[in-house]
Amino acid sequence: MLIPPRRVPWLRAATLAVGLTAASAWTLAADPPAAAASEPPADVPFWAVGMPKGNPLAPVPSFPIPTAADKLPVAKLKVPPGFKVEVWQAGILDARGLRLGDQGTVFVSSLFVAGKIYAVTDKGGKREVKTIADKLFLPNGIEFYKGALYVATPKDVTRYDNIEANLDKPPAPAMVYDKLTGEVPHGWKYIRVGPDGKLYVPVGAPCNICARDDAHMKIMRMNLDGTGVETVASGVRNTVGFDFDPKTGDLWYTNNGRDWLSEDLPNDTLNHVTKGGKTDFGYPYCHQGNIADPEFGWGKNCADFAQPVLFTGPHAGTLGMRFYSGKMFPAKYQGAIFIARHGSWNRTRIFGGDVVVAWPDGKGGISKMEPFLTGFVENNGYLGRPVDVMQMKDGSLLVSDDHAGAIYRISYAGK
Question: Which of 2, 160, 262, 269 has the most CB within a 10 Å radius?
Answer without folding.
Answer: 269
